[in-house]
Amino acid sequence: MAAQSSYSTISSWMSSVHRVLQDENIDADALFEKSGISLEYVHKQDLRVGVDEARQVWREAVLATGDDAFGLKVARALLEFSLDPVTLAIESSSTLGEAMTRFIKFYQVVSNGVLIYQERGTTTDVVITSKGDTQLPAQEAVDAAIAIMVTRMQSLASPAINPVRVEFMRQRPKNIKAFNDTYDCDLYFGCENNRICYPLVLEDQPLVKANASLSVVLDEYLDKTVKEIAMPPFTLKVSEVVSKLLFKGEVDLTQVADEMGLGVRSLQRNLKEENTGFKEIIEGCKLATAKRLLIKNDQSVTDIAFLLGFSSPSNFVRFFKRLEGVSPGEFQSGV
Fold first, then answer.
1. How many CA atoms lie within 13 A of 57 on its CB side?
2. What's the pTM?
3. Distance separating alpha carbons of residues 86 and 305, to the nearest angstrom
4. Count of CB atoms within 10 A of residue 177's CB?
5. Which residues neighbour 230 within 8 Å (Cβ) at sequence distance 6 or greater?
6. Which of 250, 276, 288, 295 has the fewest CB atoms lying closer than 10 Å?
7. Beta strand 165-167 with 186-188: parallel, antiparallel or unpaired?
Protein backbone atom coordinates (compact mmCIF):
# COMPACT_ATOMS: atom_id res chain seq x y z
CA MET A 1 0.00 0.00 0.00
CA ALA A 2 1.60 3.23 -1.13
CA ALA A 3 1.69 6.25 1.10
CA GLN A 4 -0.61 9.00 -0.01
CA SER A 5 0.09 12.31 1.67
CA SER A 6 -1.84 14.49 -0.75
CA TYR A 7 -4.68 14.29 -3.23
CA SER A 8 -3.76 13.31 -6.76
CA THR A 9 -5.08 12.70 -10.26
CA ILE A 10 -4.04 10.30 -13.03
CA SER A 11 -1.41 11.58 -15.44
CA SER A 12 -3.46 10.84 -18.56
CA TRP A 13 -5.31 14.08 -17.84
CA MET A 14 -2.03 15.99 -17.96
CA SER A 15 -1.26 14.26 -21.27
CA SER A 16 -4.53 15.53 -22.70
CA VAL A 17 -3.91 19.08 -21.45
CA HIS A 18 -0.50 18.95 -23.15
CA ARG A 19 -2.02 17.63 -26.41
CA VAL A 20 -4.68 20.36 -26.55
CA LEU A 21 -2.08 23.07 -25.94
CA GLN A 22 0.06 21.73 -28.77
CA ASP A 23 -2.97 21.67 -31.08
CA GLU A 24 -3.41 25.38 -30.34
CA ASN A 25 0.26 26.08 -31.20
CA ILE A 26 1.20 26.84 -27.60
CA ASP A 27 4.59 25.75 -26.25
CA ALA A 28 3.20 23.05 -23.97
CA ASP A 29 6.62 21.90 -22.74
CA ALA A 30 7.48 25.40 -21.54
CA LEU A 31 4.07 25.80 -19.87
CA PHE A 32 4.52 22.54 -17.95
CA GLU A 33 8.03 23.55 -16.95
CA LYS A 34 6.73 26.91 -15.71
CA SER A 35 4.10 25.04 -13.69
CA GLY A 36 6.71 22.78 -12.11
CA ILE A 37 5.32 19.59 -13.69
CA SER A 38 7.72 17.03 -15.14
CA LEU A 39 7.05 15.94 -18.71
CA GLU A 40 7.16 12.38 -17.37
CA TYR A 41 3.55 13.00 -16.39
CA VAL A 42 2.80 13.73 -20.04
CA HIS A 43 4.48 10.66 -21.50
CA LYS A 44 3.47 8.10 -18.87
CA GLN A 45 -0.23 7.34 -18.50
CA ASP A 46 -0.09 5.42 -15.21
CA LEU A 47 1.54 7.97 -12.90
CA ARG A 48 -0.26 10.23 -10.43
CA VAL A 49 0.27 13.97 -10.13
CA GLY A 50 -0.67 16.07 -7.12
CA VAL A 51 -3.93 18.02 -7.41
CA ASP A 52 -2.17 21.25 -6.40
CA GLU A 53 0.45 20.83 -9.14
CA ALA A 54 -2.22 19.93 -11.70
CA ARG A 55 -4.22 23.01 -10.68
CA GLN A 56 -1.26 25.20 -11.64
CA VAL A 57 -1.11 23.59 -15.10
CA TRP A 58 -4.82 24.22 -15.65
CA ARG A 59 -4.41 27.83 -14.52
CA GLU A 60 -1.51 28.46 -16.89
CA ALA A 61 -3.36 26.76 -19.76
CA VAL A 62 -6.37 29.05 -19.35
CA LEU A 63 -4.08 32.09 -19.27
CA ALA A 64 -2.20 30.91 -22.37
CA THR A 65 -5.33 30.14 -24.41
CA GLY A 66 -7.54 32.91 -23.07
CA ASP A 67 -10.34 30.32 -22.94
CA ASP A 68 -12.15 29.73 -19.65
CA ALA A 69 -13.90 26.74 -21.25
CA PHE A 70 -10.54 25.03 -21.78
CA GLY A 71 -11.66 22.03 -19.70
CA LEU A 72 -14.24 21.12 -22.35
CA LYS A 73 -11.50 20.86 -24.99
CA VAL A 74 -9.52 18.55 -22.72
CA ALA A 75 -12.65 16.45 -22.19
CA ARG A 76 -12.93 15.96 -25.96
CA ALA A 77 -9.28 14.91 -26.14
CA LEU A 78 -9.75 12.44 -23.31
CA LEU A 79 -12.84 11.00 -24.95
CA GLU A 80 -11.00 10.61 -28.24
CA PHE A 81 -7.67 9.20 -27.07
CA SER A 82 -8.09 7.74 -23.59
CA LEU A 83 -9.18 4.23 -22.64
CA ASP A 84 -9.25 4.95 -18.91
CA PRO A 85 -11.00 2.45 -16.62
CA VAL A 86 -13.73 4.91 -15.72
CA THR A 87 -14.85 5.19 -19.34
CA LEU A 88 -14.80 1.43 -19.82
CA ALA A 89 -16.69 0.92 -16.56
CA ILE A 90 -19.46 3.28 -17.66
CA GLU A 91 -19.70 1.71 -21.12
CA SER A 92 -19.94 -1.85 -19.79
CA SER A 93 -22.79 -1.09 -17.37
CA SER A 94 -26.24 -2.60 -18.01
CA THR A 95 -28.38 0.41 -16.98
CA LEU A 96 -28.03 4.14 -16.48
CA GLY A 97 -28.31 3.69 -12.70
CA GLU A 98 -25.48 1.14 -12.71
CA ALA A 99 -23.35 3.41 -14.89
CA MET A 100 -23.85 6.29 -12.47
CA THR A 101 -22.89 4.10 -9.53
CA ARG A 102 -19.71 2.99 -11.29
CA PHE A 103 -18.82 6.52 -12.30
CA ILE A 104 -19.16 7.65 -8.68
CA LYS A 105 -17.18 4.71 -7.33
CA PHE A 106 -14.42 4.75 -9.90
CA TYR A 107 -13.97 8.49 -10.33
CA GLN A 108 -11.79 8.18 -7.24
CA VAL A 109 -9.23 6.53 -9.52
CA VAL A 110 -9.12 9.67 -11.67
CA SER A 111 -8.96 12.04 -8.71
CA ASN A 112 -9.20 11.26 -5.01
CA GLY A 113 -9.44 14.96 -4.22
CA VAL A 114 -13.23 15.26 -4.61
CA LEU A 115 -16.35 14.01 -2.89
CA ILE A 116 -18.72 12.42 -5.39
CA TYR A 117 -22.03 10.76 -4.60
CA GLN A 118 -25.49 9.98 -5.94
CA GLU A 119 -28.58 11.79 -4.70
CA ARG A 120 -32.23 11.08 -5.52
CA GLY A 121 -35.09 13.55 -5.29
CA THR A 122 -37.25 14.70 -8.15
CA THR A 123 -34.26 13.69 -10.32
CA THR A 124 -31.39 11.22 -9.92
CA ASP A 125 -28.17 13.23 -9.61
CA VAL A 126 -24.42 12.80 -9.62
CA VAL A 127 -22.97 15.38 -7.21
CA ILE A 128 -19.32 16.47 -7.36
CA THR A 129 -18.15 18.68 -4.51
CA SER A 130 -15.25 19.31 -2.14
CA LYS A 131 -14.19 17.06 0.74
CA GLY A 132 -14.92 19.10 3.87
CA ASP A 133 -12.75 22.21 3.79
CA THR A 134 -10.44 20.77 1.12
CA GLN A 135 -10.20 22.86 -2.03
CA LEU A 136 -11.66 21.27 -5.17
CA PRO A 137 -9.37 20.44 -8.09
CA ALA A 138 -9.18 23.14 -10.78
CA GLN A 139 -12.62 24.17 -12.02
CA GLU A 140 -11.48 23.25 -15.56
CA ALA A 141 -10.77 19.69 -14.36
CA VAL A 142 -14.28 19.51 -12.89
CA ASP A 143 -15.67 20.93 -16.16
CA ALA A 144 -13.87 18.14 -18.02
CA ALA A 145 -15.15 15.43 -15.67
CA ILE A 146 -18.76 16.56 -16.02
CA ALA A 147 -18.48 16.83 -19.80
CA ILE A 148 -16.99 13.33 -20.03
CA MET A 149 -19.79 11.75 -18.04
CA VAL A 150 -22.57 13.56 -19.91
CA THR A 151 -21.04 12.81 -23.32
CA ARG A 152 -20.48 9.13 -22.50
CA MET A 153 -24.02 8.75 -21.22
CA GLN A 154 -25.39 10.26 -24.43
CA SER A 155 -23.83 7.47 -26.49
CA LEU A 156 -24.89 4.53 -24.32
CA ALA A 157 -28.57 4.29 -25.27
CA SER A 158 -30.84 5.05 -28.18
CA PRO A 159 -32.24 7.63 -28.14
CA ALA A 160 -29.41 9.52 -26.46
CA ILE A 161 -29.59 10.00 -22.69
CA ASN A 162 -29.42 13.66 -21.72
CA PRO A 163 -29.58 15.32 -18.29
CA VAL A 164 -32.45 17.67 -17.57
CA ARG A 165 -29.99 20.21 -16.18
CA VAL A 166 -26.37 20.61 -15.08
CA GLU A 167 -25.37 22.81 -12.14
CA PHE A 168 -21.87 24.23 -11.73
CA MET A 169 -20.17 25.69 -8.66
CA ARG A 170 -18.08 27.87 -10.96
CA GLN A 171 -19.26 31.28 -12.10
CA ARG A 172 -20.76 31.73 -15.56
CA PRO A 173 -17.89 31.42 -18.08
CA LYS A 174 -17.09 34.08 -20.62
CA ASN A 175 -17.09 31.37 -23.28
CA ILE A 176 -20.66 30.33 -22.57
CA LYS A 177 -21.09 29.22 -26.18
CA ALA A 178 -18.74 26.27 -25.62
CA PHE A 179 -20.90 25.10 -22.71
CA ASN A 180 -24.13 25.53 -24.64
CA ASP A 181 -22.63 23.56 -27.55
CA THR A 182 -21.60 20.74 -25.19
CA TYR A 183 -24.85 20.33 -23.24
CA ASP A 184 -28.36 19.86 -24.59
CA CYS A 185 -30.05 20.94 -21.36
CA ASP A 186 -30.42 23.86 -18.96
CA LEU A 187 -27.18 25.10 -17.33
CA TYR A 188 -26.85 26.91 -14.00
CA PHE A 189 -23.74 28.56 -12.56
CA GLY A 190 -22.67 29.74 -9.11
CA CYS A 191 -24.47 26.78 -7.49
CA GLU A 192 -23.82 25.14 -4.13
CA ASN A 193 -22.48 21.94 -5.75
CA ASN A 194 -21.62 20.58 -9.16
CA ARG A 195 -24.60 18.42 -10.12
CA ILE A 196 -25.70 16.38 -13.16
CA CYS A 197 -29.44 15.76 -12.99
CA TYR A 198 -31.16 12.93 -14.89
CA PRO A 199 -34.87 11.99 -14.96
CA LEU A 200 -35.64 9.31 -12.35
CA VAL A 201 -37.45 7.21 -14.95
CA LEU A 202 -34.18 6.70 -16.88
CA GLU A 203 -32.35 4.92 -14.05
CA ASP A 204 -33.43 1.47 -15.25
CA GLN A 205 -33.00 2.18 -18.95
CA PRO A 206 -30.87 -0.56 -20.63
CA LEU A 207 -27.59 0.53 -22.19
CA VAL A 208 -26.60 -0.63 -25.67
CA LYS A 209 -22.93 -1.33 -24.81
CA ALA A 210 -23.61 -3.45 -21.72
CA ASN A 211 -20.94 -6.11 -21.12
CA ALA A 212 -21.31 -8.13 -17.92
CA SER A 213 -17.98 -9.97 -18.29
CA LEU A 214 -16.03 -6.75 -18.74
CA SER A 215 -17.86 -5.22 -15.77
CA VAL A 216 -16.63 -8.03 -13.49
CA VAL A 217 -13.00 -7.53 -14.55
CA LEU A 218 -13.19 -3.77 -14.15
CA ASP A 219 -14.86 -4.06 -10.76
CA GLU A 220 -12.02 -6.24 -9.47
CA TYR A 221 -9.29 -3.98 -10.87
CA LEU A 222 -10.82 -0.69 -9.82
CA ASP A 223 -11.86 -1.95 -6.37
CA LYS A 224 -8.19 -2.66 -5.72
CA THR A 225 -7.05 0.68 -7.17
CA VAL A 226 -9.60 2.71 -5.22
CA LYS A 227 -8.57 0.97 -2.01
CA GLU A 228 -4.91 1.76 -2.64
CA ILE A 229 -5.41 5.48 -3.24
CA ALA A 230 -8.26 6.10 -0.79
CA MET A 231 -6.25 5.59 2.38
CA PRO A 232 -8.25 5.65 5.66
CA PRO A 233 -7.73 8.78 7.79
CA PHE A 234 -5.69 7.33 10.68
CA THR A 235 -3.54 5.30 8.30
CA LEU A 236 -2.94 8.48 6.32
CA LYS A 237 -1.78 10.35 9.44
CA VAL A 238 0.60 7.55 10.41
CA SER A 239 1.95 7.43 6.85
CA GLU A 240 2.64 11.16 6.89
CA VAL A 241 4.63 10.81 10.14
CA VAL A 242 6.56 7.80 8.81
CA SER A 243 7.40 9.60 5.56
CA LYS A 244 8.74 12.56 7.55
CA LEU A 245 10.89 10.33 9.78
CA LEU A 246 12.28 8.12 7.00
CA PHE A 247 15.16 10.45 6.23
CA LYS A 248 16.20 10.60 9.89
CA GLY A 249 17.12 6.92 10.09
CA GLU A 250 15.34 3.66 10.84
CA VAL A 251 11.72 4.24 11.87
CA ASP A 252 10.12 2.12 14.58
CA LEU A 253 6.69 1.90 16.17
CA THR A 254 7.70 3.69 19.35
CA GLN A 255 9.09 6.69 17.44
CA VAL A 256 5.89 7.13 15.47
CA ALA A 257 3.67 6.69 18.53
CA ASP A 258 5.70 9.32 20.43
CA GLU A 259 5.52 11.71 17.46
CA MET A 260 1.73 11.34 17.41
CA GLY A 261 1.35 11.58 21.18
CA LEU A 262 -0.09 8.06 21.42
CA GLY A 263 0.75 4.83 23.16
CA VAL A 264 2.10 1.99 21.05
CA ARG A 265 -0.93 -0.20 21.74
CA SER A 266 -3.33 2.62 20.85
CA LEU A 267 -1.54 3.17 17.55
CA GLN A 268 -1.63 -0.54 16.72
CA ARG A 269 -5.31 -0.81 17.67
CA ASN A 270 -6.30 2.12 15.42
CA LEU A 271 -4.37 0.67 12.49
CA LYS A 272 -6.03 -2.71 13.00
CA GLU A 273 -9.43 -1.04 12.87
CA GLU A 274 -8.50 0.25 9.41
CA ASN A 275 -7.32 -3.23 8.35
CA THR A 276 -3.64 -2.42 8.08
CA GLY A 277 -0.46 -2.76 10.11
CA PHE A 278 2.69 -0.79 10.87
CA LYS A 279 4.91 -3.00 8.69
CA GLU A 280 2.65 -2.41 5.69
CA ILE A 281 2.82 1.35 6.22
CA ILE A 282 6.62 1.33 6.52
CA GLU A 283 6.93 -0.66 3.31
CA GLY A 284 4.39 1.51 1.50
CA CYS A 285 6.13 4.74 2.54
CA LYS A 286 9.56 3.42 1.58
CA LEU A 287 8.28 2.27 -1.80
CA ALA A 288 6.45 5.54 -2.52
CA THR A 289 9.50 7.61 -1.50
CA ALA A 290 11.83 5.42 -3.53
CA LYS A 291 9.66 5.81 -6.62
CA ARG A 292 9.57 9.59 -6.24
CA LEU A 293 13.36 9.72 -5.92
CA LEU A 294 13.86 7.39 -8.89
CA ILE A 295 11.53 9.51 -11.05
CA LYS A 296 13.41 12.64 -10.00
CA ASN A 297 16.57 10.85 -11.22
CA ASP A 298 19.19 12.96 -9.44
CA GLN A 299 20.43 10.23 -7.06
CA SER A 300 21.83 6.76 -7.71
CA VAL A 301 20.07 3.57 -6.65
CA THR A 302 22.81 3.06 -4.06
CA ASP A 303 22.30 6.53 -2.58
CA ILE A 304 18.53 5.98 -2.39
CA ALA A 305 19.03 2.59 -0.72
CA PHE A 306 21.12 4.06 2.10
CA LEU A 307 18.93 7.17 2.35
CA LEU A 308 15.93 4.95 3.07
CA GLY A 309 17.75 2.94 5.71
CA PHE A 310 18.60 -0.25 3.82
CA SER A 311 21.78 -2.00 4.97
CA SER A 312 22.87 -2.60 1.38
CA PRO A 313 21.79 -1.75 -2.18
CA SER A 314 21.04 -5.43 -2.84
CA ASN A 315 18.52 -5.47 0.02
CA PHE A 316 16.84 -2.39 -1.44
CA VAL A 317 16.70 -4.00 -4.89
CA ARG A 318 15.09 -7.17 -3.47
CA PHE A 319 12.59 -5.07 -1.49
CA PHE A 320 11.66 -2.93 -4.51
CA LYS A 321 11.31 -5.87 -6.87
CA ARG A 322 9.15 -7.79 -4.40
CA LEU A 323 6.64 -4.93 -4.14
CA GLU A 324 6.86 -3.36 -7.59
CA GLY A 325 7.68 -6.38 -9.80
CA VAL A 326 10.74 -4.74 -11.37
CA SER A 327 14.13 -3.61 -10.10
CA PRO A 328 14.74 0.07 -9.21
CA GLY A 329 16.91 0.41 -12.30
CA GLU A 330 14.24 -1.07 -14.57
CA PHE A 331 11.62 1.18 -13.01
CA GLN A 332 13.80 4.26 -13.51
CA SER A 333 14.62 3.46 -17.13
CA GLY A 334 10.96 2.83 -17.92
CA VAL A 335 9.73 6.16 -16.51
1. 33
2. 0.65
3. 36
4. 10
5. 108, 112
6. 250
7. parallel
